[in-house]
Each structure stands twice: as structure tokens, then as C-alpha cells.
Backbone:
């Protein structure tokens, strides 16, 4: 669990790389500068932890490209104290970014191995979501709804109606939609029955899995 000045220097370089790719939200860049990404991945990849690359983690999942994490975080423009539901805890790196942005985070993971690992690991390095949930992301977490923001970190073949229903009016759902390559899709709830939809380009995520109790 070492975090050195060398790691800090590499994080600063990564933030500069992301800035060059169009990430302008200083709070997001500060989160990238602060979070020790090398601790979230297998130590055999540690030398590459601060490149803009995705890496395999447990349960055949991946830790997303830093650019993808920063892009999703920037699009949601999270404000302090907002209630955020994260679908797909994964390694917990995106969770840590949301917590650095001072969100109140509820996070769901449906791979039990990852759920166990990440729910133990994140508090060890000082990141504590409101709740870790082992469950089906397609269903969301209705008992804590409504949410200001919902972020999905896996590719969904369609937009789950349950997630739309759990948004506040004025709230945002950001979800990669499609099979193979996904289109990053932003839905803004404009009234009880209406949503505004924006498509924000192609991304590649692992598939979103459901049907786990």
C-alpha cells in the first residue's frame, strides 16, 4: 500500500494528459492527482498505472481508462452533497473520484468477488461510500431514491426503466448503451414523465450483468 512522490509525479502527468484530451473540470483533475490508482490494480501492472489505459481486475472485469472516468465525472458536474448512485463499483476507482467530488455515494456491484474485495479495500485507503450493495444494477436502489445523479460504468444493451424512475426531476443518468461498442448517453429528467437525451460519442465498456440476488 505504498504511495510515493514518484507516484504523485506520475499522477500529475496523468492529469496533464487528461487535460490535453479535453478534461477541463479542475475538481475532477484534482481527484486524478490525488487518488493512488496503482493501489486499485494488480501490482504486476503498477508501472503502467498512470497511463491512460484500462486494465483487467478480478472477475473478468476492468478498471476503466482514466479518461473515461474523468469524462463521465465531468459530464455529471457533481456538486458537493449530491446523492449519487453508481452502478458497477468494480475496482472502486470511479467511486473514489465521486467521493473526492464530495458526493454522497451509493454503489452497487453484482460480481461477489469484486464486491467483497472493493468494500474492504476502499475504507482502508480512506474512501467510504454511504452504502456498498451487492445486487443487480438494472434494478438500482429504489429505497434510497430519488438521486441527483446516476452513473453506470458498464455497457448496457438498453436503458433500464428502473434507473430512470429513481432520478429526481433535474437529475441526470449517464449510461453507456449498446453491445460491443457503446454510445455514452446522458438523460436529464425534465419533468415526471419527460427526459432530454444527449449522445456523447463511442466508448467501450465490459457488459452490464444482471439477475443476481
Residues:
Amino acid at each position: 500500500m505504498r504511495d510515493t512522490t514518484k507516484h504523485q509525479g506520475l499522477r500529475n502527468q496523468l492529469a496533464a494528459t487528461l487535460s490535453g484530451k479535453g478534461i477541463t473540470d479542475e475538481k475532477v483533475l484534482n481527484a486524478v492527482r490525488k487518488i493512488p490508482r496503482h493501489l486499485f490494480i494488480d501490482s504486476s501492472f503498477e508501472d503502467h498505472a498512470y497511463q491512460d489505459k484500462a486494465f483487467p481486475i478480478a472477475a473478468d472485469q476492468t478498471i476503466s481508462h482514466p479518461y473515461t472516468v474523468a469524462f463521465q465525472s465531468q459530464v455529471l458536474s457533481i456538486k458537493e452533497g449530491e446523492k449519487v448512485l453508481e452502478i458497477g463499483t468494480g475496482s472502486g476507482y470511479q467511486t473514489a473520484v465521486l467521493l473526492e467530488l464530495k458526493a454522497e455515494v451509493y454503489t452497487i456491484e453484482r460480481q461477489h468477488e469484486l464486491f467483497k474485495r472493493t468494500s474492504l479495500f476502499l475504507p482502508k485507503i480512506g474512501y467510504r461510500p454511504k452504502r456498498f450493495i451487492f445486487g443487480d444494477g438494472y434494478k438500482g436502489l429504489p429505497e434510497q431514491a430519488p438521486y441527483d445523479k446516476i452513473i453506470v460504468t458498464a455497457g448496457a444493451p438498453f436503458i433500464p426503466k428502473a434507473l430512470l424512475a429513481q432520478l429526481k426531476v433535474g437529475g441526470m443518468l449517464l449510461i453507456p448503451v449498446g453491445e460491443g461498442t457503446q454510445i455514452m448517453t446522458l438523460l436529464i429528467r425534465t419533468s415526471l414523465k419527460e427526459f432530454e437525451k444527449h449522445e456523447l460519442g463511442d466508448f467501450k465498456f465490459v457488459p452490464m450483468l444482471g439477475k443476481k440476488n
